[in-house]
Hints:
The protein has helices at 8-33, 38-41, 54-90, 102-117, 150-163, and strands spanning 4-7, 50-53, 121-125, 128-133, 168-174, 183-189. It is of the alpha+beta class.
Amino acid sequence: MTEKIVSNIAIRIWLDSTELIMGANGLKALLNYSGMSHLLENLPDYSFDKNYTEDDFSALAANYQQVLGTQGLKAILRQIGKTSARTSIDMGVYDSFKELPPMERFFKAAELFSIASGRGGPLMEGEIVVYDNPQCTACRGITSDTPVCTIMCGVMDELIAWAGMDGMKMVETHCKAMGDDTCRYEVRAGEQRPKRV
């Protein structure tokens, strides 16, 4: 039996965000195509209870990619990420961190996100905040010359803005779709592009 490591809130906010971006019929079409219409019939609640497997979570992205193509997937995932983070911010999920200094506020929010999603986690490398996500499934089965896991960039960019880290953004520097062992992100200034190592 596959371990259930993904929380209800992670799946529910993904579904809510897809519906906000693509409409109720768009969400329904994507879930019907992927054989996951049961999620609409029995929507998960907003709890941190872990009732979904890694395969359940990755099936969402994999099926979106089949319908939308890689470029469409990247655009939709970035918006789902931003909308998901905005929804959780508006729900007060991160309120206990809002009095902390910006960098610490972001780091604590990223830690809580990793607990809820069951994937990856933040760490400091010198002065650089890194989010390492070897469990990433957004790119499972995809081969690309560029990073494709824009959902994490969308989530983290929204948390960076909420934390008050002006002029900063999340950049994916490694992606399993490119043959890397992990999907890795760094908080960087402005439009700075990552250098491959």
